[in-house]
Write a structure and sequence with these properties.
Chain lengths: ~240, ~240
């Protein structure tokens, strides 16, 4: 479904991505982890063309993300993305945030969009918060609205970039629960996260990055059993301490 | 002012009352028309300066630097005396002979183009105050870059810059008095004319000042309402800090 082939990216002299290759099959959940600055966000943003890359190829469902004739907006509309800082639009209510792309990108009529929005808000346990604005919601609620906003597009895959790392501990679970639910339904997911409990529970594979390179790409069991690389071992022991 | 002979009633006499009314009308008209050039044009230039397209950014930067750095009075004279000479001959003739209200239209154009450079800077700073993640979130859901501006970035940017846009509008209102240098009978020049005819200098200029202040007050109050109406629930007046 999502395939990266020898993707490299430079910022001037600095190599952010170093020959990265990976595949995410339909229905697969892949967790991407690694130290800060290792290029995880950059990698996941290459998957929907938010970050241009210097070399290599990214394809989604066989469509090349980097090709000049690809209609990126149409491609991105099929891939949901959830950000560390939620990125809800502050001047729109929760419902309006979820409606926007349904109306403007998919061209749904207002009634259809609103029905979808209501259904998703209910599913996220946010039915009572439809008319609230982002600044009136807790972090956990905002992130669930953001997930609903992505799901409203009926995506074929979802990308998550550290969806819980801006949240207070007591709100992390409510967001992770939603993500576990999605994984159980068979959603194709790429998740940048340090939540190893989540990885153990739902990930099929874990990808470990360091200094822009994919150091390890293993099944979840193999990764948590004995990571092959020393750097992954160090990373895991640090992260599992707390 | 012991020996000054007050003569307020003269302002209500013919033709002076009419002069003040028409001067005030011209001032307001110049300001509103200039603003209706400045706001859309300035917005477009401000947006251009934040796009990824280098040629567009360059055009925007040049525009702003040119119009912001030439003194407004010099711009007024350039538009009125110099530009018609530089136009192709037929156009120049038309501007000099046939264009209706030449001084009035020239001052509207001049103030509009100058104020556009100020509006452009406000719009740019408003857009730049919005975190890049918002742009990414818009693109990620399939909006085109233009749609991200339309639905995500501009609505927030304009809210942030309401106070500075208000002072730019008041600026164009005050700057409209420069139109008198090319012979437009706006409020200040009418006050001066009344002074020349009646020697009631204090009365004439005090009235003009009061009218300027009244408009300033009304605009500020109106914009506060706009600010209140568009305030994003849950936030404390963004931009106002
Ligand atoms: N616009 C840029 N110009 C130059 N370097 C950049 C730019 N954006 C990111 N980088 C660098 O690229 C590297 C990878 O950044 P990236 O955000 O992908 O890391 P990350 O793994 O997501 O880190 P974190 O865990 O902190 O989110 C970092 O060293 C960062 O400093
Ligand atoms: Mg990151």
């Amino acid at each position: 479904m999502i395939e990266l082939k020898n993707v490299s990216k430079w910022y001037g002299e600095f190599r952010v991505l170093d020959d990265c290759s990976m595949r995410i099959a339909k229905g697969e959940v892949v967790v991407i982890c690694g130290p800060s600055g290792s290029g995880k966000s950059t990698l996941i943003k290459c998957m929907n063309g938010l970050e241009p890359f210097t070399r290599g190829e990214v394809t989604i469902d066989g469509i090349s993300v980097g090709a000049p004739d690809t209609q990126l907006p149409r491609l991105r509309a099929r891939i949901g993305m959830v950000f560390q800082n939620f990125e809800l639009f502050p001047h729109m209510s929760a419902a309006a945030n979820i409606n926007l792309a349904q109306l403007k990108v998919l061209g749904r009529d207002r009634a259809t969009a609103q029905a979808k929005t209501d259904e998703l808000l209910a599913r996220m346990g946010l039915a009572d918060h439809a008319t609230k604005f982002p600044a009136q919601l807790s972090g956990g609620q905002q992130q669930r609205v953001a997930i609903a906003r992505a799901l409203a597009m009926d995506p074929i895959a979802m990308l998550f970039d550290e969806p819980t790392s801006a949240l207070d501990p007591e709100m992390i679970t409510e967001v992770l629960d939603v993500m576990v639910g999605l994984a159980d339904e068979g959603m194709t997911m790429a998740v940048v996260t340090h939540e190893m409990g989540f990885a153990r529970k739902v990930a099929h594979r874990v990808v470990f990055m360091d200094e822009g390179a994919i150091i390890e790409d293993a099944s979840t069991a193999a990764f948590f059993g004995t990571p092959r690389s020393e750097r992954a071992q160090q990373f895991l022991s640090k992260i599992l301490q707390h | 002012m012991g020996s000054y002979r007050w003569n307020w009633p003269i302002l209500l006499a013919d033709p002076y009352y009419g002069w003040i009314v028409s001067g005030f009308g011209n001032t307001c008209l110049i300001a509103v028309l200039a603003w209706s050039i400045a706001f859309p044009l300035g917005s477009a230039i401000g947006i251009a300066r934040t796009t990824e397209l280098r040629p567009l950014r360059l055009v925007g930067t040049i525009y702003v630097e040119v119009f912001r750095n030439i003194p407004l009075l010099a711009q007024m004279f350039l538009w009125y005396f110099v530009v018609p000479e530089l136009l192709p001959q037929d156009w120049g003739h038309w501007v000099k002979r046939d264009m209706p209200y030449p001084q009035f239209l020239t001052s509207v154009l001049c103030l509009g183009l100058y104020t556009a450079s100020r509006v452009a800077e406000q719009v740019r700073s408003g857009l730049e105050a919005i975190p890049r993640g918002q742009h990414h979130a818009g693109l990620a859901m399939g909006l085109t870059p233009a749609q991200v501006y339309r639905y995500v970035r501009l609505p927030v940017a304009y809210r942030i810059i309401i106070p500075s846009l208000t002072s730019d509008f008041l600026g164009v209102f005050k700057n409209s008095s420069l139109a008198l240098t090319i012979g437009v009978l706006e409020l200040t020049s009418q006050a001066r004319q009344i002074e020349e005819y009646t020697f009631a200098a204090f009365e004439a200029f005090a009235t003009a000042t009061l009218l300027y202040c009244a408009v300033t007050g009304i605009v500020i109050l109106a914009m506060r309402q706009v600010e209140r109406r568009t305030r994003i629930p849950g936030t404390i007046a963004i931009g106002a800090q």
